[in-house]
Write a structure and sequence with these properties.
alpha+beta, 3-stranded antiparallel sheet
Length: 268
């Protein structure tokens, strides 16, 4: 975390924000939304495959796996929240000579934020390895036929990038119980942008539209964000159109696309 972004005023702002909003700020919502949706789509894809192959027991377990959790001391959480909040606030201050601001977070920082979210704690853990996001997932599968009382425990590899101003997250590989997920599942999801549902929230879409660069180096992610706000009156005007074009090419958006694609594969 950058020391230059930390000061007493920022710490007070972070405490105030955290007390009024458990997520701390918009970034927490983006983060939680991304990982939740990624895990959900992964389960839907696996569920479709189980329905066809009748191999629920092969791809699930009777108990969750214990995933690592990162716990920060209270002062560390305050510093992290202050850094993020100060970063957010700095984007709103007009500085004509400065077009971009950067926020750098380590994988450890992100895992610490995940641990603070009760809905994600113990279910998700990430690493940043060679420019890719590697996520360990352990989630119940009660919502899937035959999955009652069982758990989907997996490791997934994702590519995260910016394409024409859109955040794009794609599955590039996964392992379940130490075995690679069949390539048919990975291929069926290859064209699916797992981040697209984040754009359904206008506030989140507003901030994502300002992302100029997402760069992974070593164990950290560097976010480069514009200080100006394009299309302030309606910042999401362009995003749905562009995303709709992408979705139309890939088929019906969301989990229906995954289910349909996998069931088609299974019937051939």
């Amino acid at each position: 975390m950058s020391n230059s972004l930390r000061d007493d005023h920022a710490l007070q702002a972070a405490e105030s924000t955290a007390s009024s909003n458990p997520k701390g700020c918009w970034f927490y919502g983006c983060l939680a939304g991304f990982f939740f949706f990624t895990a959900a789509v992964g389960c839907v894809a696996a569920g479709a495959y189980w329905l066809y192959m009748g191999q629920v027991e092969k791809f699930t377990a009777t108990a969750p796996v214990e995933l690592p959790t990162v716990e920060y001391a209270p002062e560390q959480y305050k510093e992290l929240e202050a850094e993020i909040e100060t970063f957010k606030q700095s984007l709103e201050v007009p500085e004509p000579e400065i077009q971009y601001k950067e926020l750098v977070l380590t994988a450890r920082d992100i895992n610490a934020l995940i641990s603070r979210d009760e809905s994600l704690r113990g279910k998700l853990h990430i690493e940043i390895v060679e420019g890719q996001v590697v996520g360990d997932v352990s989630v119940p599968t009660d919502m899937l036929p035959g999955g009652e009382g069982r758990y989907f425990n997996a490791k997934a590899h994702f590519d995260v990038s910016l394409e024409e101003g859109l955040v794009v997250i794609k599955l590039i590989g996964a392992e379940v119980k130490g075995s690679e997920v069949p390539q048919t599942i990975v291929d069926a999801m290859a064209g699916e942008n797992l981040a697209k549902d984040l754009y359904e929230n206008p506030e989140t879409a507003k901030w994502l539209s300002r992302f100029e660069q997402i760069e992974f180096e070593d164990d950290r992610v560097r976010l480069r964000v514009r200080t100006d706000t394009p299309n302030e009156e309606n910042p999401t005007d362009e995003t749905p159109v562009e995303q709709e074009t992408v979705d139309a090419a890939d088929g019906e958006a969301g989990s229906d696309t995954v289910l349909s694609g996998l069931q088609t594969l299974g019937s051939t």
